[in-house]
Amino acid sequence: MMGKKKKIKNINELEKHISEIVDKKEKLEKLIELGKFYFLNEKYNDAITKFDQALKLNDKNPEIYYNLGVIYESKNDIEKAKKMYQKALELNPHYVLARQHLEKLIGV
């Protein structure tokens, strides 16, 4: 029988829940999910914090760098955005979205 998933009612509960997760893969997924949530709610610095925490768990994940690129681009920090897209492409040369964003920024 599968364990019952804990229902999270608010963002503070989710933050607490993430801090209690022991499984590295699950923690990484939740940090990415929370980073995207903060980004969508235009809380860019909170989003960056979550993606930076995710990088500490796995610095070889191109999705994290791509998302950081999108956040920096939204903050109009073009140089940091370029670096993040380049890192995503270094890890996965076939990352189409990262390539499209980078080409847009460098004017290709």
Q: In CATH terms, what is the fold-level topology?
A: Serine Threonine Protein Phosphatase 5, Tetratricopeptide repeat
Instruction: Give the overall pLDDT as a whole number.
Output: 90
| Rg, nearest Å | 15 Å
Q: What's the SSE pattern?
A: HHHHHH
Overall structural domain count:
1
Q: Low-confidence runs (pLDDT<50, min 5 residues)?
A: 1-5
Largest sheet: number of strands, sense, barrel closure: none
Task: Say how many strands there are.
Answer: 0
Quick tags:
mainly alpha, Serine Threonine Protein Phosphatase 5, Tetratricopeptide repeat, globular, disordered N terminus
Please describe what this structure looks like.
- The chain has a single domain, classed as Serine Threonine Protein Phosphatase 5, Tetratricopeptide repeat (Alpha Horseshoe), CATH 1.25.40.10.
- It has 108 residues and is mainly α.
- The relative contact order is 0.10.
- The longest helix is centred in the first third of the chain and has 17 residues.
- The protein contains six helices and no strands.
- The chain is globular, with a radius of gyration of 15 Å.
- The N terminus is likely disordered.
- The termini are far apart.
- Helix content is 73%, strand content 0%.
- Helix 2 packs antiparallel against helix 3 and helix 5 runs antiparallel to helix 6.
